[in-house]
Amino acid sequence: MLFHHGKIVARMLEEYRKEHQTENLEEKLEELSKEKIIQNKPSKNGIIVKGIDNCLVKLSKCCNPVPGDEIIGYITKGRGVSVHRKDCVNVKNLFSEENRMIDVYWFEAEKTKYNVDIEIYGNERNGLLADIIKEIESTKSKLLAVTSKANKEKISITEVTVQVENIDELNKILKQIRKIDSVYEVKRKK
Q1: pTM of the predicted structure, to 2 decimals
Q2: How far apart are CA 66 and CA 41, in angstroms?
Q3: Is 148 exposed, middle or buried (0-12, 13-18, 19+ CB in 10 A)?
Q4: Cα–chain-centroid distance for residue 55?
Q5: What are the pLDDT digits (tens) for 44-90?
């Protein structure tokens, strides 16, 4: 009798599967997950964590992601999610714990500002710093801090902190600074 019952269940499942083709099921799941993304509320720093609302989201200090960067979330021991750039060195170490990785997205409508540190190397000359500041101010970004020093080899090392909305804005700044006469290297600090 039990065996018979098991058979009925199997038959019912089979019928169900025939009626609801597996492909449709996958499509439905995909639709649901898409809807879920839309319904999710972004955290204060403009990040949406797939399937979870109101969780504590921290942008990791080690790689300082800004919108437009490809990002991945890591579920921390303290029940929060730390967000890293996908190319962050620390992520490679975390991948061994794949079950703790979670999909995260930038929330487009949220105009959040991000602070990014940039290092600029150039051959020391008069007016170099003024040119750097002028180039940054010609973009939409806000210059928050500047420190500049020259070493014995007459190499000027300038660090600036700028406020940007996304990666495109940041790349624009980097491009502008690279054009400055005497500047030979510009990089975003990790």
Answers
A1: 0.55
A2: 18
A3: middle
A4: 17
A5: 778 888 877 777 899 999 999 998 899 999 988 776 899 999 999 88
